[in-house]
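Title: Request for sanity check on Coenzyme A biosynthesis bifunctional protein CoaBC prediction

Description:
We are preparing a figure and want to confirm that the structure record we downloaded matches what your pipeline produces today. Could someone re-run it with the sequence below and paste the raw structure tokens into this thread? We only need the token string, no images.
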Amino acid sequence: MTDSIHGSGSGTSHDMAASPTGTRPRVVLGVSGGIAAYKACELLRRFTESGHDVTVVPTAAALEFVGAPTWAALSGKPVSSEVWDDVHAVPHVKIGQQADLVVVAPATADLLAKAATGQAPDLLTNTLLTARCPVVFAPAMHTEMWEHPATAANVATLRQRGNIVIEPAEGRLTGKDTGKGRLPDPAEIFELSLDVLSRGIGEPDLAGRHVVVSAGGTREYLDPVRFLGNRSSGLQGIALARTAAARGAEVTLIAANVTLPAPAGVKVVEVSTTAELREAVVSAAIAADVVVMAAAPADFRPTSVSDAKIKKSSDGSAPSIELAQNPDILKEISQHRSRDGQVIVGFAAETGDDTGTVQELAVAKLARKGCDLLVVNDVSGGAVFGSLENEAVILSADGASTPVPRGTKAAVAHAIWDRAVRLLDGA
């Protein structure tokens, strides 16, 4: 799995989150000494072009890869790595104190070790000790370094303190090496950072939790080129995965035919058919605290699949296609849970018909499936599909109903996680 699933475009809003002081949000971009330092230039550009006030704090090693003039030109501010520069302004204290968000990208194994043990030999590590705002680390290193017990312990320590440490991506590393340790795509680090910034100071309430999110729509093939499918884009599932990572969770995203970038720090499992989706969800659910079935599985599949493209007949007749019903994944994982206290969230895309309204059909579906929460979308006229916005009603097994007003899909995702966290906490 590389940095992205496929394609481009995140489908999220780039609106600036307000600083607690009412000014432009103040972001500290820490850059440590890894080859991926050059990618931080793209991250810096995204922050500055979206109106954030960015102070770049590189380590001395980072300046061996990208020089101070580059950081100064892109940020519009002087750049230093030393605590001794401009001592009268006490930068080693004030930069961290005044920040609304600190993002370290790339975060090397050395930087993570210093941060975890409270060392402060330079301006960046001093800044980390004085910051009282959210801190995001985007690691980048060779696979062996990431998997070393010392690094694992340092990451665990940082996460226990409320920091967000993004899982590195898998892909091409320095030289010919390939594996886990690649810096996530800067665009995705930016999106996750905006999400963290929008929530402000507070403990990541999904820290230490493993969540599984399915996204997209399955395909049931008739022949090598044709399939039965649906209009699900995967945007809401992607938003759920990204916001869960921003709230500190370990996230597994099971993506069914999704053509969107993979959120930073998320493990992605790609599937195509409903059978593949079921296998992946059931397997991942074993270790999950929360499972969110945002994908749209096909209800039916052809009983047989042609090995060759089905041709038109000379007499103009159409082939007869026999369908079989697919397994009900949501009902299966709801009624056969792998652990006590596991929270299962389903989705219902309803239009209403002569048997009932959208709400009535959704209430019946919640009871039939046996999940804890059901997110109901009224998709009459094709609403929601492919849109950057959504609105929903979250139904609970205890009879509660929570309307979520129209907003970004990230906002809807946070409303879903708010309800899930309450269930996890026994509320």
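Thanks, this matches our download. The chain is about 30% helix and 25% strand.
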